[in-house]
Amino acid sequence: MSLFDLTGKTAFVTGASRGIGRAMAAALADAGADVAVVARTAAGLADVADDVTAAGRRAVVIPADVTDEASVTAAVGAAIDELGHVDIVINNAGGSNFMVGFRDLRISGWEKLIRLNLTSAVYVCHAFADHLLGRGSGSVINVASVAGVASAPLLTPYGAAKAGLISLTKSLAVEWAGSGVRVNALCPGWTATELNRNLWEDPQAGPATVATVPMRRWARAEEMAGPAVFLASDAASYLTGQTIVVDGGQTVSP
Ligand SMILES: NC(=O)c1ccc[n+]([C@@H]2O[C@H](COP(=O)([O-])OP(=O)(O)OC[C@H]3O[C@@H](n4cnc5c(N)ncnc54)[C@H](OP(=O)(O)O)[C@@H]3O)[C@@H](O)[C@H]2O)c1
Q: 19-65, pLDDT tens digit by residue?
């Protein structure tokens, strides 16, 4: 178990107020880390802060909008000030709130989703670069998607943003490897959260969505947390630039 122990480590998790980010923040705390939790809505952040403190760890609540560079810079500064240092950075905030064929896609919609799912992580990594490289250690985890690995019909901006996030992961991993900072991507498959409640709650659409997933079910948000703890921990000390796909076998299915 000591390989996965995060005692004395500190983490910064975006999109931590619900879903996958909340599960990751709680699991990091269970493994021993203090956690700065970031999202726009204070009420959700209070809930995840309760999870962290229930695990006996310190929670720092930071309301911020990851699509706003100044907001991100302030959030990163506040996390470093409050926690003293940050070892683990999880760029998890993201999503897509529409599906549309490419022909009907508005450029404003494209730009909005690229900013939410890709540029946001650029803001965070930029704001943390001096701190992480100066300390000579750290683990950055970018939450991408199977949509960034395979095709993403009707979700072209989301798929392109997540593919870009995987590319950013590889390039930063190589640039930062010599400084002891690891950068990896975690790609969830279909995971039942608020993001897609309209699908998994529907008696027809829910099972139909996962019909081609070999495990034949939706993931729970908590099933993304173990891989995140692994990537954050010394168990992954020689692992960088990689894309861990957690999708019940979806992307290897014939
Ligand atoms: N669920 C899936 O099936 C699935 C599959 C593949 C990849 N993913 C990825 O996994 C990540 C988490 O998804 P999820 O399913 O957990 O989504 P979710 O339940 O909708 O949660 C999204 C989180 O991000 C925060 N957020 C959204 N926009 C933000 C902004 N501009 N600034 C700061 N925080 C923001 C939300 O809080 P506020 O609204 O309060 O800001 C919330 O905490 C996303 O990157 C998503 O693309 C999800």
A: 999 999 999 999 999 999 999 999 999 999 999 999 999 999 999 99
**Which pLDDT tens digit goes with each residue over 83-124?**
999 999 999 999 999 999 999 999 999 999 999 999 999 999
Burial class for 150, CB neighbours closer than 10 Å (0-12, 13-18, 19+):
middle
Average pLDDT over the chain, rounded to an integer: 98
Q: Quick check: CB of 17 below 6 Å from ligand 1?
A: yes
Which residues constitute the domain of residue 101? Answer: 2-192+220-246
pTM: 0.99
In a domain, 208, yes or no: no
Which residue, 2, 40, 20, is CA-closest to 144? 20
Residues 184, 243: contact at Cβ < 8 Å? yes
Tokens of 43: 């009420």
Tell me what percent of the chain is helix, strand and coil, each rounded to the nearest 5: 50, 15, 35
Q: Exactly one of 12, 158, 176, 230 is catalytic; which is it?
A: 158
User: What are φ and ψ of residue 163, in 5° steps?
Assistant: -65, -40
Residue 201 lies in a domain: no
| Dihedrals phi, psi of 41, to nearest 5 degrees | -100, 120
| Best residue among 12, 13, 17 to mutate for probing ligand 1, ranked by most atoms within 8 Å of CB | 17
Active site includes 158? yes
15: Cβ below 6 Å to ligand 1?
yes
- Encoding tokens for residue 173? 């991993």
Q: What's the number of domains the chain is made of?
A: 1
Token pair in block for residue 88: 């683990």
Is residue 105 one of the residues assigned to a domain? yes
